[in-house]
Design a protein that fits this description.
single chain, mainly beta, Immunoglobulin-like, Lipocalin, ten-stranded mixed sheet, eight-stranded antiparallel beta barrel, 26 strands, 7% helix, globular
């Protein structure tokens, strides 16, 4: 890699069980600043990197990406953060590609963007209270290894401008990236997005062991692949970072303790009622049709909030008996920094 000084801001370890790349928008003028948010589901070497690569370059090999990158930044062991790039001067189609190492590694995630001189560029999402944010495109998994036939839960966000027949499918990693028609030819299973801007899909892992991708495509009519996320099917998956070795009695006790989160809270955004199923928490609150979805680990709840006028991420820290919490929220993929506190009533 070249020696190049670039600016990295705000790397944290929040939402560490996914790997994806989000952009503040998807069309830029030459030389315009680009904000790239990333989340990594596992620890990577300090030389893992994200770079701008022309879309025509074949996917999969870090060495190939290294050969053709226009600019890049090392993650320096960061698991979540925001990077600042400049759009290439030459108009055209490009990718941000995440590579797991700078030493003959592999590409593990990507998202596409365009550089254009057109005056009809898409507008960057604002954070006004009456705004409807434009959803980025992203894919995330709670783990990246599955047994053959195991259920896979995939979380996604997609731009509102996608066609109704935009789709996400499982494609062998050896298949060339970029073309929706090629992905369509080789997909093992798929689901249509149907104009959803965020959601959860359930897939079944392929029965044959090996490496696969979830690939998002912007239409089912000779479209293009816009982002991807790799995973492995193996007969001996490693335990995810969430997993703990516990006896059945301690598991039951932990689930019983977690249920104390259920109930109604008086919060910064009016009354909110929470329910839990396993470690998954859902809730509704009396503000602009608000709802939350998240995962509880110990006394920490991380997830997404959705309202009629926007969406974003949140983080709640509960006290020992789940009678109150202190929290933060942010718009879209911003790091949560605004207060959101509550007490059970």
């Amino acid at each position: 890699m070249k020696y190049l000084l670039l600016f990295i801001v705000g790397i944290t370890s929040f939402f560490a069980n996914a790997q994806f790349i989000n952009l503040d928008k998807h069309v830029y003028k030459p030389g315009e600043k680009i904000l790239v948010s990333f989340t990594i589901e596992r620890d990577l070497p300090s030389d893992a990197w994200i770079g701008i690569i022309p879309a025509a370059v074949s996917h999969g090999s870090e060495a190939v990406n290294d050969k053709y990158d226009i600019s890049y930044q090392y993650l320096k062991n960061g698991t979540r953060g925001t990077l600042v790039f400049k759009a290439p001067q030459k108009v055209g189609n490009y990718d941000f590609r995440l590579n797991d190492s700078d030493k003959n590694g592999k590409e593990i995630a990507m998202t596409a963007f365009e550089v254009s001189n057109s005056s009809s560029l898409n507008v960057k999402t604002t954070t006004h209270s009456n705004a409807s944010p434009v959803s980025p495109q992203s894919l995330s998994l709670e783990k990246t290894q599955f047994k053959p036939g195991e259920m896979i839960v995939l979380h996604f966000t997609a731009p509102s401008g996608f066609a109704r027949n935009a789709w996400i499918g499982i494609v062998p990693s050896t298949v060339k990236h970029g073309s929706e028609a090629v992905n369509d030819k080789y997909d093992l299973s798929y689901k249509y997005i149907e104009k959803q801007t965020n959601g959860v899909m359930q897939f079944t892992a392929p029965t044959k062991t090996g490496f696969y991708d979830f690939r998002m495509n912007d239409t089912d009519a000779n479209g293009k692949e816009v982002t991807s996320l790799s995973f492995e099917v193996t007969n001996s998956p490693k335990k995810s970072s969430k997993s703990t070795s516990v006896t059945s009695n301690s598991t039951t006790s932990n689930q019983s303790s977690n249920r104390r989160i259920e109930g109604t809270y008086s919060t910064s955004f009016n009354k909110m009622t929470l329910k839990i199923n396993g470690s998954k928490v859902t809730g509704f609150y009396d503000y602009s049709g608000g709802k939350i979805e998240g995962t509880l680990i110990g006394n920490e709840l991380n997830g997404i909030w959705i309202q009629n006028n926007g969406r974003g991420k949140f983080r709640f820290i509960f006290n020992s008996d789940f009678s109150s919490f202190t929290g933060k929220w942010g718009y879209n993929n911003d790091v949560p920094t605004n207060n959101w506190n509550g007490r059970k009533i």
